[in-house]
Amino acid sequence: MQKSLTKAESAGFCFGVSRAVDMVNDLLAEGKKVCTLGPIIHNMEMVEELKKKGCRPVNSTDEPDEDEILVIRSHGVPKKVIDELEQKGMPYRDATCPFVKKIHRLVAQTDENDIMLIAGNRDHPEVQGIIGNCNCEYYTFNNEVELDEILPIILNKNNKQVKMVAQTTFDTKELKKSVKKIKKLCTNAKIFDTICNATSVRQSEADKIAAQSDFMVVIGDRHSSNTGKLFDICQKRCPDTVLIETAAELDLDQVRKAERIGVTAGASTPARIIKEVLDTMSEEIKSGETTTNVEESFEELLEESLKNLNTNERVMGTVISIAPNEVQVDVGRKQTGFIPADELSNDPTVKPEDVVKVGDQVELLIMKTNDQEGTIMLSKRRVDAQKGWEELQKKVDSQEILESKVTEAVKGGVIVIYNGVRVFIPASQATATRDEKLEDLVGQDVNFRLIEVSQRGRYKRAIGSIRSVLKEQRAAQREEFWKNCEIGKRYTGVVKSLTSYGAFVDLGGVFGMIHISELSWTHIKHPSEVVNVGDTVEVYVKDINEETKKISLGFKNAEDNPWEILKREYPEGTVVKAKIVGLTTFGAFANIIPGIDGLIHISQIANKRIEKPADVLSVGEEVDAKITAIDFDKKRVSLSMRALLPEDEQAPVKAAPVVEEAAEDAAEAAAEAAEEAVEAE
Ligand code: SF4
């Protein structure tokens, strides 16, 4: 009989669990007293092991001793727990898996207008944590049957926005069915696929192996949700599936009888336990008379795993798979090599798939080998940084201008990643002026030069300056400007500041001013009525003072001059609709077009005698009037309503004064009476 034994590559600790366990181990290694809020992972073997090292599980935030550091496990907790810890000022570390944190953020963004559906086991700590961060009405369901009970309730609340998230370890196939059903009934539902990639990879691999096996072994704690899901998935494919917590639970008789054995393990199953199970099976298979072909020699596997790779060594690896949280790499050993996402690049904004592709050969630094887990933790960013560092030291001497992207704003400055090295740019060196916001630089490509690269022991630092490059660029721009500047030349500039008398415009290294009277053809009280800081404006040079280097800018277009419009489109004799804007004893001022008011002398208001204009007209009224005279030099316009009326012989009116005289009389009074009076250029 030919036997085969296939172990799932994804079996064992996932990124989140590994991170949480490492956090506890690191604290213990630092000599700290540690407790965890609940068992750190759903694996009693591991919990007992940690207890021996001095880490105890507690059930509430009241239990830790004063000198203990509380670790929140990868499942996460309700928001009120974090609030409690903060209020009490208790020392704690949050090992909530970043994928679970993402769900917390999604549900925290809800309000009373939303309904949240949570696919998962309501009693599971991860789901309890999700519920405890949710700000709206919520319902949980574990399968289609439970969903069917919820949907009619939700459909009755048709004015609410339905949203859905899933426990990270929820069954992917079950989720697909549920999503289909939700979408059919709630067409505008917002579905967030929050199943962790590690979970879906693990589940599909288990499904595939179980389909090819006649005996399937799932290793993990019976309280572990993801182990339970794996068992369900495998059992559907292979009826002879067993769930065991340790090697001692193996039914060796079944091992002997089976031809094709498959093995997988939950995300919280330590590699040591997996190895023990494999070892036991390997022994059993070897002792069997009929064994002729074992797909994987576990003896070899054990031997290989004992071969250690030294930390801080560089190795070449081939990328074999990419997940959001880590990249798996083959470094030519039996151990699984992986690069955690934050060890791929110094730029926290890039995704793993932007950094490497499957099949890429990459040089890596060994950070940690874990023989028990059978893993090697690697770093790409540290190799890049080491290489980049050597180059950086040369660049500081040459004062070369470098180009890169600002990746984050930090306390006191911004970070630029150059050749894999984090270069700190202090706030005083980040912008041309102090009033610019550092956050606005994030994501921008900038030019900078290194002003300091130093190393003290293991501590390295690189400091750069964007401002020194900007200063040089502006000096060059200024020189260029003065070389070519001439009156009448047009420029595109950016408004940098406003005062009560004008706007200052950056023309590229040189500032010019648009006087308030240059901003508009009509009267304005403040420049902000026309332009704002940050506006891009088209200007022309009106005047230059070579000595003081002051530049007066023009902004208004000649063709928009209302007197030009009047000349073009409203010659004397034109009948216009004019709006009364002011009344005096000797006449009424009426607006003809924006920026131009004309005077209707009292004698030109009606075809009979009137005591005062206010007896006939009121401000805001629109009247028909004829333009009877225009004086372009004095910027005066005379209007007549009477010219459009038939003469009333019964009531002869006093002859109208000469327009010129009337307008002159009016001019002074008008300036006081009406703010919007005739505006002289
Ligand atoms: S299964 Fe995924 S979400 Fe859960 S702890 Fe592991 S990596 Fe995080």
Give a brief outline of the structure:
With 681 residues, the protein is of the alpha/beta class. It has 19 helices and 32 strands.
How would you explain this protein's 3D organization?
The protein has 681 residues and is an alpha/beta fold. The protein folds into 6 domains: 4-10 and 206-304, Cobalt-precorrin-4 Transmethylase, domain 1 (3-Layer(aba) Sandwich); 99-195, 4-hydroxy-3-methylbut-2-enyl diphosphate reductase, catalytic domain (Cobalt-precorrin-4 Transmethylase, domain 1, 3-Layer(aba) Sandwich), CATH 3.40.1010.20; 307-379, Beta Barrel (OB fold (Dihydrolipoamide Acetyltransferase, E2P)), CATH 2.40.50.140; 384-470, OB fold (Dihydrolipoamide Acetyltransferase, E2P), CATH 2.40.50.140; 485-556, OB fold (Dihydrolipoamide Acetyltransferase, E2P); 571-673, OB fold (Dihydrolipoamide Acetyltransferase, E2P) (Beta Barrel). The strands form 7 sheets. The protein has a 5-stranded mixed barrel. The protein has a 5-stranded antiparallel β-sheet with strand order 20-19-18-21-22. A 5-stranded mixed barrel has the order 23-24-25-27-26. The radius of gyration is 40 Å and the shape is elongated. It binds iron/sulfur cluster. Iron/sulfur cluster binds at residues 14-17, 74, 97, 99-100, 168-169, 196, 198-199, 267, 325. Residues 14-17, 74, 97, 99-100, 168-169, 196, 198-199, 267, 325 line the site of iron/sulfur cluster.
